[in-house]
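During the reporting period the student researcher (J.K.) took over the structure-prediction task from the postdoctoral fellow and processed the backlog of single-chain submissions. One of the processed entries is reproduced below for the supervisory committee.
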Amino acid sequence: MIDLNIINNSVALIDRSNHGLLCVTGDDRLRFLHNQSTNNIQSLKVGEGCDTVFVNSTGRNIDLVSAYIKENEVLLLVSPGQNKKLYDWLDRYIFPFDKVVIKDVTTQYKIFSLIGKKSLDLLSEWVDNNFLNAKEFSHKNITIDDIELTITIGCNLKLTGFNLIIPEKNAEKIWQKLTAKNPILMEIKDYDTLRILQGRPTPNQELTEEYNPLESGLWDAISFNKGCYIGQETIARLNTYKGVKQKLWGIKLDRSINLEKDNIIMIEGEKVGKITSYLETESENFALGYIRTKAGDIGLKVNVGEATGEVVKVPFIHHEYYQP
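J.K. obtained the following structure tokens:
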């Protein structure tokens, strides 16, 4: 099992090509994506990006996506297994007069992530330090030994890191160059461990149509000043009238649980929420779960099966407007 402190103070490498990648082109691409998701896409310039949430007409979660604005296209990095679902969702809203084309390019690229503070040192041979210290979601094309690829600031967690988006035919050469520098090699299950410890919600667990982005703590992926988008009315009403009835939190547990049967969060025999993700490490048992707003927040003591837990803040989620 990985150690978050070791990873954060070193450099780790992981192949995240299980994530989906959509490419959106056409003159109306920014307007289209602006109207289909929660963040202010139209305000972004080439080389910038953001997290944004795609929601249904009642403001319920579909997926949390990282958008990268390139000169002639927008790349959407989507959650594992969600590329076809999101492609189909977006395609249904393209009308004949829209100058928008969406392509699922998942199989055409590999996505490698470097995580940890020493990832800057590893990349400094190929990338200037000013860019490596740029704002999260900044990105540009670089060349490593005549291989062109895209580098993004951030690894989609609130940890120092970078994504490399590489044409599939050249990916093995880049992988060899990176591994030659002896990073810690991570597996997909390790990234999921980091995801849970960081509090990043994922589809089929925290991101389902049971919940909306405000409940999921994705306030920094929402613009409350932009115009209409699908689901906007519901989200705006929830914000205006303080209508968030449940919130996603981290929960430190004093012992292991069986998630299949022990997924109900209780306080003094009363159900107040549900566990959505769970992991065990050598040092702790940790979960993500939704808890009724009226029950309390950070520091709240809860029970899950035979385990006692304490509600804690996690880096990725915020339950009010957040400006890093």
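The committee noted the following: The chain has a mean pLDDT of 96.
J.K. will present the remaining backlog at the next meeting.
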